[in-house]
Specification:
7 helices; 6-stranded mixed sheet; about 25% helix; alpha/beta; single chain
């Protein structure tokens, strides 16, 4: 692969063709010549790492509960595909463990740790980060470390992750508004 060529990353999978952060979206993305797949990780109340972008389950259930306030069993009860289109009804909740099990098929994984400023005082983003590093650094996945990058908009989360696992790759996401401050247009 040309190291000077920009990467083509499927953001949340092929999210225009299938419900984001699901196996269906990843399968569709892999049908294209992508260099990797980006997805969002949150932690359920009982410590299970799940793939979902939004803070609440409004999109999938109509309710306004936060992902962090529900157990993995409660989250698994929702239909993670029907909100997108009836053809995806029955799509199950995707967990990080399941996604990491697909590493042999993914060229790269860009794993975004979801961290909201209002949750910092509770320590939730840091517990999520610890759990994520623990899982990625498990011997089952160490052979794939060169294909994994951990992303976040939260520099504190990335700093903690780096302190725990300096051998992994990290990317600080910046909001579009920050680009003008660092010389963008």
């Amino acid at each position: 692969m040309d190291s000077h060529r920009p990467w083509c990353i499927a953001h949340r999978g092929a999210r225009e063709e299938a419900p984001e952060n699901t196996l269906a979206a990843f399968e569709r993305a892999l049908a294209y010549p992508v260099d990797g797949i980006e997805f969002d990780v949150q932690m359920s109340r009982d410590g299970v790492l799940v793939l979902f972008h939004d803070r609440t389950v409004q999109k999938v259930s109509g309710g306004n509960q936060r992902v962090a306030d529900l157990t993995s069993e409660e989250l698994a009860q929702f239909d993670w595909g029907k909100w997108f289109h009836p053809d995806f009804a029955g799509e199950p909740l995707m967990t990080l463990r399941r996604a990491l099990g697909l590493l042999d098929r993914f060229p790269r994984m860009l794993v975004e740790i979801k961290s909201h400023p209002s949750e910092r005082a509770s320590g939730h983003p840091y517990r999520l980060t610890e759990r994520l590093i623990e899982m990625i650094d498990h011997p089952d996945f160490r052979a794939f470390h060169d294909r994994i990058a951990i992303l976040s908009f939260d520099p504190d989360v990335l700093s903690r992750a780096h302190d725990r696992a300096p051998h992994l790759r990290y990317v600080l996401n910046v909001p579009d508004t920050a680009l003008s401050m660092i010389g963008g247009e």
